[in-house]
Amino acid sequence: MPVHHLSDELLLDHAAGSLPEPVALLVATHLALCPSCREHETSLEAIGGALLDEIEPEPIEGGGLDALFARIEAAPPEPSEADSTAAATVKPVASDTTPSLPRPLRDYVGGAVDALHWRRRGKLSEARLLPDAHGGTVKLLRITAGAMMPVHTHRGTELTLVLEGGFSDGRGHYLRGDVAIADDEVTHRPRADDDGDCLCLTVTEAPVRLAGPLARFLNPFLRD
Amino acid sequence: MRPCETVPYANAGLAAPYLPTLNSVRGQRGVMGEQAIGPDKLMRSSPSAEHFATLMAAVAGERDRSAFAEIYDHFAPRLKGYLRRRGSDAGQAEELAQEIMLTVWRKARLYDPAQANVSTWIFTIARNRRIDALRRERRPEFDATDPAFVPDNEPSPDDALAASQDSAMLRRAIEDIPDEQGTLLRMAFYDDKSHSSIADELGLPLGTVKSRIRLALAKLRRSIEEDA
User: Fold this and answer.
1) Which of B108, B139, B217 sits opposite A24 (nearest CB)?
2) What's the per-residue H, E or C state across B69-126?
3) Is A76 helix (H, G, I), strand (E, B) or coil?
4) Which residues of B touch A19 (CB under 8 A)?
5) Number of A:B CB contacts under 8 A?
6) Structural element, H or E, at residue B20
7) Taking CB atoms and an 8 Å cutoff, what residues of chain B touch A210?
8) A202 and A159 in contact (C-beta within 8 Å)?
9) Using an 8 Å Cβ cutoff, are B199 and B209 in contact?
10) ipTM of the predicted structure?
11) pLDDT in tens, chain B (228 residues)
């Protein structure tokens, strides 16, 4: 079980539906590995439900309920029963090996990790995911066992989720499922564990003041 | 419409004590909730969570249109209000609210009262539908059937279960937290803003926003646990 979790404020933004897709991808992938954060998110969604009840209603001005029933009758027979039956009968696939990449990350990679376009820089390799997404830069990183990363600081918050192996950075030791959160006040020098390469998902949130088309243009230069 | 006495409650997964609630609500839309609940003013303003769960079971089991109508009358205008607050114009908000209610009708059989109350379930449908429609992004979701998925230790953790019980209790707890914290929670859910944009907008240091959010959530979790 992970011991380094998502922050309250990230889970809140996720439960509210306010995170850009890159950050939401990392959060959802951590949730797949972390029952404790899933439980917290359930409580946050309950707060969202309670707030929906108290919101100022706005009258429905069109056809309302009658129009909705008309749409229901005009639609082809509902597939919902078949859907729900199918969903109920799907069992986890029996497997001797747990995939390194949980869903939803596995779907975003869309195949073998090795088939991605990896750029190697010394003992660090990186592969970019979601190159066109707004709101953050998403990469898979592979760090050679025992290797030390260069000292670096961050522009915007950097989230790192461990998928294989582990690393330490002086603030903690991170293993599969753990999330390291580093903002622009953190200067750190992560070191991969000795017992194997470390595979991580990292998302660097675009700085708020640079959100928008300009950020998409600038970020590749800022990041490297 | 079939008489409600013939509704197969056992198949709908509902406990017998809910039966009288549904029976007495026929023909009295909007009235039942006020009879069924206590004197608190917040609770009086809105039907109880159990009542909506009963209506959902009737929609799922019998495709009961009068039960759905009551759910619609409560939620469709609130969904429109929610979508307007999050930046949709009136026409778009109404169209999306209709689509969300259509999803509620179609997926009624997937609603599980042990997982979430009806308000929470509809909130999550609205949140996800809004992301699909307005941002043209996918909302990445975990998959509990994935072999890499790490399952819960216990099937229903106490506080998650308590969270599913009664949104009126939770609304009272939200009323009780300091205004400065409640404002942040409402901005997070109602306005299309992450906590860092909220800090910008309010001119507050990010650290202050984070600590207020943490205090508010810690307090709400305590309320949820005490109520369990």
Assistant:
1) B139
2) HHHHHHHHHHHHHHHHHCCCCHHHHHHHHHHHHHHHHHCHHHCCCCCCCHHHHHHHHH
3) coil
4) 194
5) 243
6) helix B19-25
7) none
8) yes
9) yes
10) 0.81
11) 443 333 333 333 333 333 333 333 333 443 343 333 333 434 444 568 889 999 999 999 999 999 999 999 999 999 999 999 988 899 999 999 999 999 999 999 999 988 889 999 999 999 999 988 877 777 899 999 999 999 987 655 554 445 455 667 888 888 999 999 999 999 999 887 888 889 989 999 989 999 999 999 999 888 777 765
User: Best of B119, B152, B153, B224 to disrupt the A interface by mutation (most A CBs within 10 Å)?
Assistant: B119
Say what the pTM is: 0.79
CB A18 within 8 A of CB A135: no
In 3D space, the residue among B95, B92, B150, B124 whose CA is nearest the CA of residue A37 turns out to be B150
Question: What residue ranges define each of the domains in chain A, with the CATH number in brackets?
Answer: 1-224 (2.60.120.10)
In this complex, the residue of B72, B148, B171 whose CB is nearest that of residue A53 is B171
Chain-chain contact of A18 with B116 (C-beta, under 8 angstroms): no
Structure tokens that stand for A2 in this block: 């992970």
Which of B160, B167, B186 is the closest to A49 by Cβ?
B167
